[in-house]
Every structure is written in structure tokens, then in C-alpha cells.
Amino acid sequence: MITEEIKKRMIAIIGPENYDDSKVGRLCYSYDATPDLQALPDAVVSPRNTEEVSELVKICNEHKIPIVPRGTGTNLCGGTCPTEGGIVFLFKHMNQILELDLDNLTMTVQPGVITLDVIKKAEANGLFYPPDPGSMKSSTIGGNISENSGGLRGLKYGVTRDYVMGLEIVMANGDIIRTGGKLAKDVAGYDLTRLYVGAEGTLGIITEAILKLVPIPETKKTILALYEDLEAAARTVSKIIANKIIPATLEFLDQPTIAAVEDYVKIGLPTEAKAVLLIEQDGSPEQVEKDMAKIADICKSEQAVSVQMAKTVEEAEALTTARRTALSAIARIKPTTILEDATVPRSEIARMVKAINEIAEKYNLPICTFGHSGDGNLHPTVPTDARNKEEMERVEQAFEEIFIKAIELGGTITGEHGVGVVKAPYLELKLGAAGIEAMKAIKNGLDPNNIMNPGKVFAKDSRKRVVVGQ
Amino acid sequence: MTTVQEQQTIQNVFQDRMDQDELLNCMRCGFCLPSCPTYITSGYKESHSPRGRIALMKAVVDGLIEPDEDFEQSLNQCLGCRACEPVCPSGVNYGHLLEEARDIINQNKKHSLPVRTVRKAVFEGLFPHQNRMRTLTGLLGFYQRSGLQKVARSTGVMKLFPESLTTMERVLPKVPTMKEMKNRPEFLPAVAPKTNRVAFFTGCLMDTMFLETNNATMKLLQLAGCEIVIPQDQNCCGALHGHSGEKDGSKALAKKNIKAFEDLNVDYIITNAGGCGAFLVDYDHLLKDDPEWKDRAKAFKDKIKDITQILYEVDFHKKVKLQLPYQIVTYQDSCHLRNVMKTSAAPRALLQAIGGIDYTEMKDADRCCGSAGIYNIIESEMSMQILDYKMEQTKATHASTVVTANPGCLLQMKLGIEREELSEKMRAVHIVDLLMEAVQE
């Protein structure tokens, strides 16, 4: 509950234009991209700088008001859905690129900067910021850091975590700390930077970040390989890696996914193929040439029915863009789309794909699978309808089995989307009871009043998607 | 103000009429956010984004919120540019949702007496009657030619009106005389080897205030080998009604137009206003629940084509020599032409075919200019902010000629040029007028 008194104090800090508790204002921050999940916050605030964030947090801590930091709400785990009410923090004013340091190859940013703007700014200076989550055109860097977002280039270049060198954080008690720095080597104490990347806003609020940039690869080539057999495609993935080639991108799409994507982008994708691999390599022209020739050979040796190299940059771009739309294109099939990101060691890809198909059959569900096969990160996706309770029940069961299978194969319940609300009930599968306890100890130590994004990561009880009223 | 009673009624009708599948189809991925001019201009307010507006409509249906003033404000501030549709991976027909929501609000809300009077006069008394459109334009002509305009400006009486209106008054084109507006052709032969038989949708504003542009359009069609039929019983397309929550009015106009064009034995129906064209291609949706008209609307819709598209398809720019004195030319997309009619390559190809000029693409040419029908008058503040950004991008091209493909955009760009005091150095023209200027006969 936010009393008039608390409201007044907050408005004194940020001004009336940055405090919104209207019905419309609250409704608009009651959701993110997670299907079938909605809950109204009590108010929405837009602080203008770190000090204001700190002042607001102090008030929330004093009165035990939940805080939900939110970028543009594109995450898929319910991470920014205010399931316990409280106050949503927006970073629309804190959206500046503060510095581009060409000597240290770093970029210092505020959390509200759009991911694509970071990438563009780097590229305009001959540099490269590799993490490229599917929503990069609209997502913010603050959200990416809090969710430790991945993307298509994860296999070769890693994920957001690998590009965060330092952070400014507002702690749950309002203290402002700085971690890391423009340093390749820094072992001064615990690595809090890494702890906060992917903490989903449950340990504090990120108000500034130093990002690592790398030199931009000279050139890039793209191959599209078609298969009549799903597992042959999966085997190709393992074989490419076993041959000591790390492609920049190694994406996998199954037939239902290809059909959905083609229906949307209409660039002539082969909808008759059972599986498609989209493979990109970047680097020096000689190396790219050499790798691509070898990759093409491997594809053919694994019975690819067609192996095509994109002839122009535009053609390559069209293929990558098509892959980027996969999730959303599937969303056209049915009103509700449930997508998960079970991840296994890449050597287990073929087995995982096979298991997903068997589970789909068992529960009589149309599962489309696509994903970053090179890093073992798959996206089994079910187009469904939240209004069909019986089918939703089967979807839940199917995913539970998929998670269990992933763990069995040495994998994890989530590769890049985060735990949030929707995967919290499965976290114990991955961590065990002791693992959960260790994490809870950190949470309790840093946020004793449990105000930072409460209800996320740690499950209360069983996993149920619910639409919360008010 | 909307009373509590009215809110209750609106909520009930929302539950009844809003397309719930379409609402649910929005997966809230947020891909639309960067494409929305009002989201950006409002300083990234979710309530001013397509995702936010859909969530709000759904919340009203679900009974989570009441359709209060803030809710209406959020919908009112939408330009209806539909830039969110091409980028929507789920293919949500946002424009249809918006029109339905606006219609429900408007039909169930009692407007104040002056607003009611004006709406009635405009939507029922004026636009559906082409003769009255001519009379009004005639009056404007009288105003411009009689010296009254000079008097109005010199006495400062114009200062009594809002800023966007007074500037608008300055940028209105010199309108044709009553005689010119009345003597319109019904048939024109092709003057080059025949390519197509087409009908010309003249449009209510285009055939009065922008008569010259219509004349140029027909000339270009003739030069492109088109034989043209111009049915005299056609009407305003109804877009203004549709976008303003007067769906019944737009349906009546749609039926009249379908009837006027259906037995002409033509290949295409040509428009030269993106705003009209986009509404015409939506006739099948507008009349989807009317069994008598549904199929006829579909047949009509399938023939709609923008003037730039047909010129491009028949290789007009390769067959006719186009040449102009040196100037930098840039193009501002008509949102509806681009996002709904999917025509954006053709106008650019035509412009690039003009010899002697330098075509420079402006940044964010696909972002709305803020005209949006009568939005620039009703939501003047937001419209002017959007226009300011547009003018920044226009100036960055150093263009002396800004080309548009819709009368609303044309007036808005003229307004922008006037506001920036650039009228000495920069002009805004409709694409067909520039092409006509470039034709070397």
C-alpha cells in the first residue's frame, strides 16, 4: 500500500510528471512479453538519475514496498511483471550513452539505452558489441544485463555477461556501489559484477554499466543447409564443433517453424525441408572462406539435401532477419505462444531434439522447435490458446518433461530467458535444495526486506500461469 | 467528460464488439515500440504505444479498467499511421482495433452541443456531398481572390485561431474556380499505346482543393497508356469518418463507391491519395458482416492501386523522358500508402528516374509527419512536435523539394516549411505534380 504520505515524498524527489498511479498508467506496466501473466503495480516512477533512484529505494525499503525495475518489458519469464504489486521503476530518462572510450574499448551506458543503439554506436566506430537478443530493437541494455540476455551470436562471442566490465548499482538499502571497471584483470574481492548480471533485479537496481567492445570482424558469410531428417541436422551441429570450428551463428529451425517464418517474411524459405541450419562465420576473409568450405562439406556428409551460400550481404541479412522473427512468426498461428529455452551441452542437441518431438507426440501438441543449436540453446515453442484450459494443462506437463529431460542430459531449464516467475518452480531441478539455499542466503543478505523484485527466481509453490486482477 | 453511466455502456459494447481474438493475438513482444511516433515523442510512454493501447483495449474488455479520460486520451493521441502493423510479427490488425474502439467510444458518448454540431455538419452535411465540397472550396477561392484574405491577415484576425490553423491558412493551395471544379471529364483516352483500362478515384478534397494534382494524375495515366473512366457518382472514401468513430457514415459512402465503380470493366481503380487508398482497400473489412456487400467490396478492393504503383508497373519512367533543373529532392512516405497499401518502392523509383536531380533519402522517411487526417488540428501539440522532428530530418537532406503522396502530408509538410520560415528555399509538392513538371513532351 502506498499512502498519500509516501506518494508525496516520492513526488518531492522526482516531480509529479514522473509519478503515475492512474489506472491507465498502472495497467500499461502490468505485463511484459510473458504470455498470460498480468498484475497491476501500485504506481510507476521514472527517476532521472542515480541519486533519485537511491532516494526512492530508501523510501521503499523503509515501508517494505516491492520494487520492479523495468526496461521495455520484452522478457519472457515474467521478470518485470509486478506480481506482488509495488512500484515499477522506469529508466526512460536514464537512456544516454555516457562515454565511448576508444583507448580502453569500452562504452559506458545508462540502463535505459536501447540495445540496438549500443550495437550501432559501436559499429559506427569500427567496434562490435556482440550480444544480440531477439528483441534488441526495443529492449534496453539494463534489461539485457539483468536477464543476462543471449542471442544468435552466443556460440562464438558469448552472452551479455561476457561484455559487462563494471556496474553502478543501487542496493536495496539505497546505498550506491560501483563494481569492476575498465579492467581486464581485477580480483579485488567478490565478483559482484557477475553476480548482478542475470540477477533479474532481485538484488538491486543497475543504474550504469561499463560494456566491453571488441574489434569488428572484417567479413561475414552465411550458409543455409536443408535437411530431410531432423536428427541429421542436429548431428551436423555436433560435427562442426567437433571439427574445431566455432561459427558466429549456428541456428536451427524445424519444419513447422520454417513454415511459420516463411508465411511472415515471404523470402522463399524452403518450407518442405524437415530442418534448416543457418550458419554464419565471421573473421578475416581467408579464415571465413576456409571455415565455410569445411562447414559445407560437413553439411553434405550429413546428408544435407541442399547447401547454399548467400550471394550478397542483403541475401544474408534477409536470412538472419528471417530467423530473428521465428518466435513472433509462430505467434501468428494461435493467440497464445508459450516458448521456453531448455539448454543442453551442444553434444546432446540431437538427443534433445528427438526427446522434444516424442514429448510433443505424447501430449498431442504442435511444438515448433528452433534455436541456437550451436550453443545447445533450443526454443521449443507451442502455439496455443490461453482460454483452452485443458490444452494449457497439457502444455505445462509437456514442458515439465522437457525440463527434466534437459537436466538429465546435463543441461539447464533456462539458457537465456531467465527464471522470473514462470520457471521458478523448476529451479530446484537444476540447483538442488542446497543450491537454492545458497542463492537464498545471498538474496537475504543483500535484500533482507525482500523488496527487490519479490516473487521472482524463488518459487512459492507450484507453477501456474495466472492472470492476476488488481 | 465521459459520465460513469457512459463508461459503463462503453465497457459493455467493448465486450460485445471488440475482436477478442485480435486483442489476444498481440503477444506483447514490444517489436512495435520503436516504430511508433507517439511512443517516441511522448518520451517513451507505454500508454502511447501500440502495445500499450492494445493492452488498454483488452483491459476494458476484461473489466480491469474503466474507459476513463486517460484511456480516451491514449486512443485519441494515436495518429493511426499504422507503422506498427508491418513490424508486427504476429500480424495484429491494429488499425481495425483502433477504428472499432473509436467508433464505440464516439457512438456511446454524448458530445457537447458545439462539438455535436460541428461533427454533424462535417460528417453528414459536408464530406458526403461533392457539390457542397465544391461550394466550400469555392468560398475559399472567393476568400483568396477577393482580397478578403489580405484583409484577414493584415487585421490580425487570424491570430484568434490556434497556431497550427493560422499557419495552415497560409499554406492552403490557390484553389480552382467553381467553373473548373464543375466541368470534369468522364472519359479520357490513352495517348500512348494502350496498357490498361482504369477508373480514377478522384477523392473529395483532391477533386476540389487539389484539382490541379488530379488533372496531372490523369495526364500521367494517359501518357502511361491508360484509358480512364471517371465515374461521376463516386464519393468521398469515408476515411475521415472511419478514423473519427463514424463507422456507419463510412459504410454508406463505401457502398456508394462500390456501386459507382463495379460495372466499369476496368483493370484497376487508381487513387493518388495514400489516405484514401488505404481506406478503400479496407472496404472488405468494413463491410465484412454485410452478406450483400462483402464480396462486392472484395472485388472493389482488389482493383485499388496507387498512381505511383501503376506508373512504375507499366514502366512509365522508362518510356517517358523525365528531366528537371538541378535540385535536391527527398521523399516523405505517406503512412497509409506505405503501411497499408505497401507502396514505398514505386514512388522512389519514379523520382530516381528523373534526370538532372539529386535524390536524397531522408532519415526516418517512413515515420509519420503528424498530419494524420485532422489530427494536426485536434491534437495540435503532439502533431507539431512530430512535425518538428520531421523538419529536422528534411533539413538534413538539404532538399529544396519535398515530395509527398497524399494531400494531408502535403499540407503538413507545407506547414512545416512555413513554420521553419523556409518557404524561400524549400517547397513541398505532390509526386504527380513533380512528375508532370518533369515530363518532356
UniProtKB/TrEMBL annotation, chain A:
Cofactor(s) for this UniProt protein: FAD
Protein name as catalogued: Glycolate oxidase subunit GlcD
Family per similarity comment: Belongs to the FAD-binding oxidoreductase/transferase type 4 family.
Cross-referenced SUPFAM superfamilies: FAD-binding/transporter-associated domain-like, FAD-linked oxidases, C-terminal domain
GO cellular component: glycolate oxidase complex
The encoding gene: glcD
Residue ranges constituting the FAD-binding PCMH-type domain according to the UniProt record: 37-216
Keyword terms of this UniProt record: FAD, Flavoprotein, Oxidoreductase
Originating organism: Robertmurraya kyonggiensis
Keyword NADP: no
InterPro entries reported for this sequence: FAD-bd_oxidored_4_C (IPR004113), FAD-bd_PCMH (IPR016166), FAD-bd_PCMH-like_sf (IPR036318), FAD-bd_PCMH_sub2 (IPR016169), FAD-linked_Oxase-like_C (IPR016164), FAD-linked_OxidoTrans_Type4 (IPR051914), GlcD (IPR004490), Oxid_FAD_bind_N (IPR006094)
Gene Ontology MF annotations: (S)-2-hydroxy-acid oxidase activity; FAD binding
Pfam families per the UniProt record, alphabetical: FAD-oxidase_C, FAD_binding_4
Keyword Flavoprotein: yes
From TrEMBL, chain B:
InterPro entries named among the record's database cross-references: 4Fe4S_Fe-S-bd, 4Fe4S_Fe_S_CS, Cys_rich_dom, Glc_ox_4Fe-4S, Helical_ferredxn
Keyword terms of this UniProt record: 4Fe-4S, Electron transport, Iron, Iron-sulfur, Metal-binding, Repeat, Transport
EC number assigned by the record: 1.1.99.14
Residue stretches making up the 4Fe-4S ferredoxin-type domain: 16-46, 69-92
Coiled coil: none
Single GO MF annotation: glycolate dehydrogenase activity
Catalytic reaction(s) noted: (R)-lactate + A = pyruvate + AH2; glycolate + A = glyoxylate + AH2
Cofactor(s) recorded in Swiss-Prot or TrEMBL: [4Fe-4S] cluster
Cofactor binding description: Binds 2 [4Fe-4S] clusters.
Presence of the UniProt keyword Electron transport in the record: yes
One Pfam family this sequence matches: CCG
Domain of life per record: Bacteria
Function of the molecule: Component of a complex that catalyzes the oxidation of glycolate to glyoxylate.
Protein name: Glycolate oxidase iron-sulfur subunit
Organism: Robertmurraya kyonggiensis
